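The material for today's practical consists of a large collection of protein records. Getting from the letters to the tokens is the skill we practise here. To make this concrete, we reproduce a full record directly below:
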Amino acid sequence: MRIPPPGRLVSVGTHRLHIRCDGDGGPPVVFDAALGGSSLSWSLVQPAVARHTRACSYDRAGFGWSDSGPLPRTAGSIADELHQLLRAAAIAPPYVLVGHSYGGLVTRLYAARHADDVAGLVLIEPAVPEEWSNPTDEQRALVARGVRLCRYGATAARRGLAQLVSRLVRFGALGAARLLVSLVSRGGLHRADEGILAPIWKLPPEVRGMLREMWTQPKFFEALGSQIETICESATAVMSAGPPAYGDRPLTVISSARSSKERLQADSALARQSMRGRHLLAAESGHWIPLDAPHVVIDAITAMVAEVRGRSA
């Protein structure tokens, strides 16, 4: 990206990842964003958490300021790279891991593989691995469409069309932008597909330009497409990791109060896997709780940080 990174680029061997840390103290809080999210997705949450402890967000390979990484982009490979990143960046464990949606798969795998490094988890509308490990025909079709749209996006980015769409959005010409996107995607993009990406209008103005530029880069669409294409493999990896050893490790699961009955039941069951589990509901919020109701996320994280500190003392 042409805009200088707000954090720093750290090598994990084959490529560099961007990580931004604010604040001081422990335990460090590490954020992992949703499927199409990035470090910018935490713009309404990270500054508030950083007033209490060290708060770190990062960009997965191909996203934001991070380099492209080896394919395929599975949740397992992303979890391994996150572990390498935190070590290379000299951020000492144990951590409070915060995962939103797809980031829930990554953080759960991280906790399964590096249990001693994790002091607690906050999972926000986490992806339900049971739903994707054995997908229905409808889910397979959804994955195929997502991969196809990302290929169109990568092609548009290479040809400079994504820059044009970004400019149209910037100047408020949303209808023209959607028309151009529809032409590029051969009519395959639906309004509902925009929910994969962070609702840009809810972010601070200074962040929107960074996000628009990220969405004009081929590496973003290539990485996102690979994550979508391997979602079933990622879900199976979480299932194969065995029963989570949460024990009395604090675990907070946050759901939108508008979620389906099945989602609420799955999130409640996940919270009960810890003896210190909690299931919270965010009223008046959709799936993007970190942007719709950031105070709910902030309160949950700061409460867990205080709890971990109390136990350490």
